[in-house]
Design a protein that fits this description.
Helix content: 25-40%
Strand order of the largest sheet: 5-6-1-7-8
Distance between the termini: 51 Å
Radius of gyration: 23 Å
Structural class: alpha+beta
Number of helices: 13
Number of strands: 12
Strand content: 15-25%
């Protein structure tokens, strides 16, 4: 059997807000909320000082302002955050080429073998965090474990500016007391379904046994049991293939469904431009996303026999998908998005039907 992998999950601490506090000394020690002000804005990031008031990412900005009236709102500067993210990625690359970025501020690293010959994954994580602090004047936290999902859980354990190791012999005891919501793929709906069975912790999930979980939830039940045992064989993917390209926009004021036509065309053009960068692969499925004024999210998708070959086809499909939205005419929409998904290599696509039959 192959030896256990050594996976590190590195997560920058309150990244956007920390960059702002680093670059503007007057913000240090103050509750900083990275967001545009306004009724339609959401929080991109919150400093730890703001988090003590309950402010969190993705929260409506108005809600954040009510929770923390003394917060300093700073508009996001993604060009600056991306520049810092590139610095951090360069530090990662000194230690391994197996890097799987999840976002600008976090990534998985497989350091089963590391370039500098450091004695352990723990030493690699410490060296990376030291370099980040020295070269960017920011802090990062890290989790070290035999697989990705355990490393991600562990990176939260000693935040901010800490690291935690889950050794193979610790896995079962480490997981047992955790709420099932910590497992990847277990959202509020599944949490509620498990709670109805008397399952609140990973240990209780494990004790429930695979047969009943599989009977109730099918293949997902088997997967839940594997996760309760700490089993996950997903490798770090340094070059993840594109699965979807999309673009979305929030309207300045909520609009009726028929008023989204122009935006759908513009967003389809952006998505199509991104899809064209995939020289060897095509997106088979067109996806339309809508968000209502009360934050209900709707998605509609269509997979034609052949992938769209022109922007006009993408727009036509997206508009047809819009016609399948069956909400009352009085409904207003705050956001629309268009995407292409289900990318496949050209040699994996079904053959084009002949105009003249077989």
């Amino acid at each position: 059997m192959a030896p256990p992998r050594k996976i590190v999950h590195v997560d920058m601490d309150a990244f956007y807000a920390s960059v702002e506090q680093r670059d503007d000394p007057s913000l240090r020690g103050r509750p900083v909320v990275v967001a545009w002000r306004g009724a339609r804005s959401v929080v991109c990031a919150a400093s730890y000082e703001a988090r003590t008031f309950g402010v969190r990412s993705a929260m409506p900005a108005l809600r954040a302002e009510k929770l923390c009236p003394q917060a300093v709102f700073v508009p996001p500067d993604f060009a600056r955050y991306k520049a810092v993210s590139r610095q951090v990625r360069e530090i990662f690359a000194r230690h391994t080429d197996l890097i799987e970025p999840l976002s600008l501020d976090e990534a998985y690293l497989d350091v089963t073998e590391n370039k500098l010959g450091l004695a352990s994954a723990t030493a690699v994580a410490q060296a990376i965090r030291d370099a980040i602090r020295e070269e960017t004047r920011l802090t990062a936290s890290a989790g070290i474990a035999p697989n990705k999902f355990l490393a991600k859980i562990a990176s939260d354990w000693r935040k901010p500016d800490g690291q935690f190791v889950v050794k193979p012999a610790m896995v079962l005891d480490f997981l047992a007391p955790l709420p099932v919501g910590k497992l990847p793929g277990v959202g509020k709906v599944m949490e509620a379904r498990l709670a109805a069975l008397g399952i609140a912790t990973v240990g209780q999930l494990r004790a429930h046994g695979q047969p009943d979980l599989e009977r109730r939830f099918g293949r997902w039940g088997r997967r839940l049991h594997e996760l309760s045992l700490g089993q996950d064989d997903h490798a770090v993917e340094s070059e993840r293939p594109t699965t979807q390209v999309s673009a979305e926009d929030t309207f300045a004021v909520d609009v009726p469904l028929e008023a989204t036509t122009e935006a759908i065309g513009q967003l389809a053009a952006k998505a199509w431009s991104g899809a064209l960068r995939e020289a060897e692969r095509s997106g088979r499925t067109v996806v339309l996303k809508l968000k209502t004024s009360d934050f209900r999210i709707l998605t509609r998708s269509h997979t034609p026999l052949q992938p769209p070959t022109t922007l006009a086809e993408v727009i036509a499909i997206a508009l047809d998908l819009r016609s399948r939205v069956e909400l009352p005419a009085r409904t207003r929409y705050r956001l629309v998005g268009v995407g292409l998904a289900n990318f496949r290599r050209h040699d994996e696509l079904p053959p084009q039907a002949s105009l003249f039959g077989p």
